Amino acid sequence: MQSYHRPQVEQIIHLVTERRTMRIVAITGPRQTGKTTIALQALTLLLKSGYECRYYAIDAPVRAPFPSAGPAVDVDIVPIGVTPDVPWLIRVWEHARLTAKTTARGLVLILDEIQRIHRWSDTVKGLWDADRRSSCPLHVVILGSAPWEMMTGVNESLVGRFNAVHVPH
What we know:
Blueprint: H1 7-17, E1 24-28, H2 35-48, E2 52-57, H3 86-100, E3 107-112, H4 120-133, E4 138-144, H5 148-152, E5 162-166
Parallel strand pairs: 1-4, 1-5, 2-3, 3-4
């Protein structure tokens, strides 16, 4: 039996796999609208298409399958006792970057609840720009329940670097 996928799943897959306009995919919307389920359904389909993927649940310090995404998808975790911060984000990104360079289609890095990392947008901007200059095949999907303007902060703009996918109630 095939599970139901909201239209955003196909939109995310298209944005991630579109090579000409490679940008960060930002999935935003209020809490409890299905952002994580949508991202994990897209992840499952990307895996089936031959993409390597890493999913980090920044707000969940335990490993757990997500059966609502289809086949159970295991996630990378933030170890208990570790507070995700900018150095943590840089380490995760650099590891993803190395993996992306060794795979045929690159790597899809999904960061759920990114807004929990203080000053994340400054860091993502710098890392993303460096990856574009070096043609690194790292595809990035970020999720957050805060409005995009609040997530990115008033001091930093990611304009031109992302495609927004809004998930309403």
